[in-house]
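Batch manifest line 191
LIGAND: inosinic acid
JOB: complex structure
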Amino acid sequence: MVKINREGQGKKGGMINFVTSNKGKYAEAQAILGDLVQMDIGYTEIQADTLEEVAIYGMKEVALRLKGAVMLEDAGLFVQALRGFPGVYSAYVQKTIGNAGILRLMEGEKNRSAYFKSVVAYAEPGMQTMIFSGEVYGQIGFEARGSQGFGYDPIFYVDGMSLAEIDLEKKNQISHRAKSMRALDDWLHKC
Ligand code: IMP
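JOB STATUS: finished
ARTIFACT:
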């Protein structure tokens, strides 16, 4: 029988497994969805043109390995002046050239517009995979600022503050991830 969702539980009951190695992502998701089980089990992140393709492929893999409700999230930073780079390559670019490398690529560039996008894939046994997404628009700063958050947060600015200068509660009022997770939460609460 399908049940009404309680905090951190799937449609059919049972805790939701969030497959991620990223403690920052987990904390942001948990603040919205309630208690989740963090599963740091890794999965194949294919090279594809969209975050949706990466998330759907990853979900096919993890749904075979885990029982019950499963979710994973793929995110990326899309910089307008760099024609959407790093986009789907965000994890690799963060590991290699990092925030300093993005600031270098943006030297002398007046158009600083950028956005983050988050795509969440969610599945339960016997149900088709659901996809939810969210975006936040901002600017690439001229310097890295702040020590909170993770990844590109210190160089991504909204209303004059980098996402690393605001706490989790404030980030969760505006972020791409907060929007995708809230969309999932709304869907879970619908019968
Ligand atoms: P993935 O979703 O873990 O593949 O993230 C891709 C890259 O974007 C990683 O380097 C993350 O650290 C970075 N990233 C994802 N979400 C955020 C965010 O909310 N703020 C800053 N960087 C992020």
